[in-house]
Amino acid sequence: MDNHFDVIVLGTGLIESITAAALSKAGFKVAHIDPNPYYGADQASLSLDELVQWVNHRKEHDRSVTHYGEVPPHARQYSVSLGPSVIPSIGPFISSLIASGVSRYGSFKLLGRVVIYDGGMLKDVPQSKDDIFQSKAMSLLEKRRVTRFLMFAAGDFENNKELHGQENSPLLDFLHRIFLLSEATARAITYALGYCYFIAEKTLPALHRIRAYLKASGRYGPSSFLVGYYGGSGEIAQGFCRAAAVRGGVYILGRSVTTIEVDDFPDRLHCRCLISSTSLLPGHLSTLADVIRPSISSYGSPRPFAVARCIAVVDGPITLPWDIEDSGTSEVSDSSLLVFPPGSLHGGSAISAVHVMTAGPGTMSAPSGKGILYISMPLLTNSVHSAEILLRPYLTAVLLLFPAEQQQQKTLICSTFYMQELNSCTASTSDPLVGLLAVPSSSPHITQGVDEAAIVAEATFRKAAYSLNREIKEMNQESEQTVFWPVLAEMEEGEGNDMHW
Predict the structure, then answer these.
(1) What is the bridge-based pairing of β-strands 66-68 and 411-421?
(2) What is d(CA 372, CA 311) in angstroms, rounded to the nearest whole number?
(3) Which residues fall within 8 angstroms of residue 464, CB to CB, at 6 or more apart?
C-alpha cells in the first residue's frame, strides 16, 4: 500500500466524515482512521448486540454507565443511535447531503409530531398558521398574538423596534413582555419551536433558530425536519465515508492511534495535513493544533458540558397519545419528538429541557411491533448524579403517558444510561502548527447539531485545502480543489443507488 497521503483524518464522527468526503472529491489523497470497529464515533448507529459490547467497553473506565435487560432475538434488526438528531429541511447539512450525492445512499422521512409535556399531558405544538387556527387549546386572542409573533420571527427582525434592547434578555421574558403570550404558549415556543436547552437562553440567537425552522417548513412537507433511516446520524456519517472511499479514500478501522503511529500496522503513514477529533489528538499535540471553532452566531445556544442519555427499547409500537382536544387528523408516525420544559416534571430538572425522540420500524430502526426511546438532557456543568438518576423519572413518565391497556403491553426490553462528555476546544498556547487541524466534538443539539457539523466541516476543508495548495504553490486564481463539493455532471461508476451498504 502506498503510505503517503495528502491528508490523514482521525475519527469518523460526522464532522470528520464530511471533511474527508469533501477532500476526496476535491482530488486529495485521504486516509481515514478510527480506533472503533464502526463508523460514526459518538453518533454511531449500532445493533443491539453491538450496543452491549459498547457498554461493556465503556464500563471499563466509566462505572456510571448502566444497562438493564437481555439482548432480544433478532438483535441485528435494531439500529440504535448513540447521538440521535433531526435534520432541518433547509440548512448547511441538507445542502451538503445533496451536493455530495450522499443523500442517494440513504433514506429519509419527515419527522412526525412535535409535542410538549404540560401539566401531565401532551400538547401538540403548532407548526404553521393552519395548525394555530385549528387548535382548540388557544383562545382567539392568543391565536392572533401567536400569529403576530410568527410573522415577526419569520421576517427581518434584526432592526425591528420590538427587538431593540431585548437581544440578550431571556426568550421567555421577551415573549411575555413584548407579545403578551401566556405562560403555556411562551414555553411551547421557547422549548419546542426555538428548541432552547436552558431557561435563560438569549432572545436573538433563539429568534435566528426559529426563523430558520419556519423557512424550512414546507420544503418537503408540513414538518421542518427530516429523520434518517437505520439510526440516523451514524448511517449518514458512514455514507460520507463511502463517498470518500469511492474517490480513493483509504479506511482503517479498529486501530488505536498513539503519537501518530498506528498500532499493529506494518507501515507508517505519512501526510502533509493531519485532521483530528480533539478526543483522539495525542496530548503533546493538543496545544499545537489549529482548532476549528464553531462560530455560528445564529445558533447561539450555550454549549453543554455533557449530555445525559438513555436508550430504551420497548416491546410494543410507540405512537404518542393524542391530546383529547386534538382533532386527530394528523398522520400517525413512530418518529416523533417530545419536549419536557425545565421544571415540568416532578423530580426532573429545573434548569434543562429534556428531549425524547421516538423511533421504530417506520425508519427501519426496529423490527415490527417494537420501538425505541431516546432521552437526552444537556448539562451546563459536571453533574454529581449519574445519567440513570437524572433520566429515570423521564423514562417512567413517558411510559405512563400511554393508556392503561397499552402500558401493560409496552414493557421495557432493555435500557442503557450513559453520559456523553463533550471535549472542549483548548486554545493553543503558541502559533498553531501548519497542517495540524483539530475539530471539536459535534454539537449534541437535537435540531442544530447536524448544521453545525456541516459548517465546521466546511471550515476545516477550506483550511486544509489552503494549507495543501499553498504547499504546492498554486498560483493566482483559486484552484478547483478548494471548491466545497465540486459539481459532478453525473454520478461516477460505482456510486449507485445501493442504500443498505
Answers:
(1) antiparallel
(2) 7
(3) 7, 19, 23, 28, 273, 275, 437
Which helix (H) or strand (E) element contains residue 182? none
Q: Are strands 257-258 and 114-118 parallel, antiparallel or unpaired?
A: unpaired
Q: Report yes or no: 197 and 445 within 8 Å, Cβ to Cβ.
A: yes
**121-138 mean pLDDT:** 79
pTM score, two decimals? 0.90
Which residue in the block uniquely carries the three cell numbers 426559529? 210
For CA atoms 16, 22, 28, 30, give the dihedral sign.
positive
pLDDT per residue as tens digits for the range 274-297 = 999 988 887 777 778 888 876 654
Q: Please tell me the distance from the alpha carbon of residue 255 to that of residue 499, in angstroms, as a whole number.
A: 27
Q: How many residues does the chain have?
A: 501
DSSP letters of 330-374?
Answer: SPP-S--EEEE-TT-STTS-SSB-EEEEEE-GGGTSS-TTEEEEE
Which amino acid belongs to residue 115? V
Give the count of alpha carbons within 13 A of 335, CB side only.
24
The model's confidence at residue 266, banded by pLDDT at 50, 70 and 90, is low
Q: Which helix (H) or strand (E) holds 140?
A: helix 140-154
Cβ atoms of 308 and 383 within 8 Å: the answer is: yes
For cell 459535534, the residue is 442
Cα-Cα end-to-end distance for the chain: 24
Percentage above 70 pLDDT, the chain: 84
Closest CA relative to residue 499, chosen from 229, 251, 257: 229
